[in-house]
Amino acid sequence: MMSSLLLHEYSPSGNCYKIRLTAAHVGQPIERREYDILKGETRTPGFLATVNANGRIPTLQIGETFLPESNAACLYLAHGTPLVPEDRFDHADMMRWLFWEQYNHEPNIATLRFWYGWVGEDALSELQRANLPGKRSAGIEALALMDDHLSRTDWLAAGRFTVADIVLYAYTHVAEEGRFDLAPYPHIRAWLARVAARPRHVPIDA
Amino acid sequence: MMSSLLLHEYSPSGNCYKIRLTAAHVGQPIERREYDILKGETRTPGFLATVNANGRIPTLQIGETFLPESNAACLYLAHGTPLVPEDRFDHADMMRWLFWEQYNHEPNIATLRFWYGWVGEDALSELQRANLPGKRSAGIEALALMDDHLSRTDWLAAGRFTVADIVLYAYTHVAEEGRFDLAPYPHIRAWLARVAARPRHVPIDA
């Protein structure tokens, strides 16, 4: 019996979507509360004092406690289900993709999606503009690494559908909104189709 | 009975140190192989084809398989030990700090340590120089968040010493090499001393 769950979120965020997608796969209902990040609603004194001192969504509220970090929330929801491998190596290998997602994938692919789709190309700061080429090439490197890996396996870790596939699906399937062309990555495209075909799958705008 | 373990590393890296520190705490011997990252030894075709396609250390070799991502390697080593909480929330809360470390702490605090200590201030590129103020303020935000959290608890998660403390100790205890002053953070300094006083602790240069 789980406490009531409330997702503090900005729904178009891939980091929020991955939590909803995990909840759908484990059949766990969650309530949702929307914040407008563009209006600073996650930086108010009240938000910082209670929901997340880091000023970011998503945060998963579990009863009276708060769990920030999207991938930690996915792991919480998937705890004890087949989405989390029990084998020692397979478990660590799944975790490897979750850390890689936050270090090598999200800061490039999600950030460019946000810059182009939310900030707007004309409104980018000089510093953001200076960082575009580096983030573009790092994002391409990340996609190439995924494509190469998925040329040898149907799922990212443990030979089966795990939290790693959910977490990396979130921003990869909308990479083109960050102007990353997925045409050169046939193995990624086939994997995206496999993830979307899973029973209980929900789209990002559900 | 674990397979033989070989850490592919650059020993001054905090990401490599956290793996050695975890191994020390669980009493697991590991062999070590050193690469000079400044000479591109982790970007050779051989390294990319076998050790880590992402061209980075550390990678933990377990028998004939390779596990990149420092925090995943720590979790592998600590699997089934008291360093990893079993309780569902405590486990996710520990994971929260591990993801936060890779997203909010390492890219700022470890990067400035590397830029000042290895690249050298005079050799920084124009883009690195442009990113200094943002990384400085994000690093300070990260330290302030940790200090606030540690004002209320002795350990980062689960009310006890876990992998989260090991992982965040690695770059926090050398933050001054990135010119982050720890004087304003008494709770961090007390926590660093608690971590260093644990039985089996090893320093970064061991």
Automatic annotation (TrEMBL), chains A, B:
Residues 3-85 form the GST N-terminal domain. Residues 87-206 form the GST C-terminal domain. PROSITE patterns: GST_CTER (PS50405), GST_NTER (PS50404). It comes from the Bacteria. Belongs to the GST superfamily. This is Glutathione S-transferase family protein.
